[in-house]
Amino acid sequence: xxxxxxxxxxxxxxxxxxxxxxxxxxxxxxxxxxxxxxxxxxxxxxxxxxxxxxxxxxxxxxxxxxxxxxxxxxxxxxxxxxxxxxxxxxxxxxxxxxxxxxxxxxxxxxxxxxxxxxxxxxxxxxxxxxxxxxxxxxxxxxxxxxxxxxxxxxxxxxxxxxxxxxxxxxxxxxxxxxxxxxxxxxxxxxxxxxxxxxxxxxxxxxxxxxxxxxxxxxxxxxxxxxxxxxxxxxxxxxxxxxxxxxxxxxxxxxxxxxxxxxxxxxxxxxxxxxxxxxxxxxxxxxxxxxxxxxxxxxxxxxxxxxxxxxxxxxxxxxxxxxxxxxxxxxxxxxxxxxxxxxxxxxxxxxxxxxxxxxxxxxxxxxxxxxxxxxxxxxxxxxxxxxxxxxxxxxxxxxxxxxxxxxxxxxxxxxxxxxxxxxxxxxxxxxxxxxxxxxxxxxxxx
Length: 445
What we know:
The chain folds into 3 domains: 8-193, Globin-like; 200-287, Translation factors (Elongation Factor Tu (Ef-tu), domain 3), CATH 2.40.30; 304-444, Rossmann fold (3-Layer(aba) Sandwich), CATH 3.40.50.80. Helices cover 40% and strands 15% of the residues. It has helices spanning 3-9, 59-72, 76-90, 103-119, 123-136, 146-162, 168-193, 272-277, 313-326, 347-356, 378-384, 399-411, 427-430, 433-444, and strands at 200-211, 214-221, 233-236, 245-247, 259-264, 284-287, 304-309, 332-338, 360-366, 392-396, 419-421. β8 (332-338), α10 (347-356) and β9 (360-366) form a beta-alpha-beta unit.
């Protein structure tokens, strides 16, 4: 879709702030939604949260918060459906902020709640996580006035599905917790607005099919797009408005400002199939701000071990290219994995890079074929060539692979703080699952 079409399809959406008095629920809303929703009075358990960053939760309150999440988890799917139903019924104006298909969005809500609850006793990382969310939500058109509406409907949903476990004390705990989150997110968005735009328009200048449902797509942003090697960007296309997906540039920043992404078409996906099969030079997309902490520490001289599965090779390649440009010459071991030898995407390119740089070693792993020297899953091959306790580790690919590789590295003595990963389904939120999975692995080990 060309520029003129994109401007109307992917326009900057300035959705009105929800009104102080909600509208009547439409007749098409689920029967379980109250016919007339009222804004809760201050002090009511489901009132819009208001809290100060100076109001920490006690250990007992944190325990109650986590217990309430455990109580509603068997009905998590129903809870998110109900949440969005009452949110759109009470505040119809916010519907324009969300994609038509809400399946991914519901999943993101759950993961976000999990992550916040995981971090509720870790204030520094909680603030860091919510700051990233606040900045990223600018691209949706979210405004500070939307947060009370979301909080009101979230607490109403929790109250409905927690049943007898929901008490005035628990309501106040959730009110305080959400108020802190909303405060940090809102402030982060306001600060970020002073530094740069919420989105960048970019034109596709090159589209190359690489087989196995993968395309390399190069875009040229209209204005400079700031990012660091190893970070990722969210992308919105004209074929699926408001549906944002995350892709990582496969290189360090270029002088001309262009970006190349590796995109695999996901069966049944809303965004990637169109990018791979329909997109062409001249089409326009929008990019959200760069995110992710999987970047090289310029002050560290530790050797590197990098593990990449599928198109997760993109950020790993960017890190290697950045290391080559800066002349660091840190010993770097890269492991590239796939199910079959034919699916070892990008291996030849990495091998050519290893021929140019004596400090770079590249190895492949194939899990579903018996090939001498290549057989095994990435975590298996990683364990075989270890130990890695002196290394800085960077992992990118499917969540299960990242989890297993991280577990292998931990068992070999690599500290958690030196294991970097940005899962790419829903990066910041997908990571919510990793601490739980890691704990399960360690307990089983």
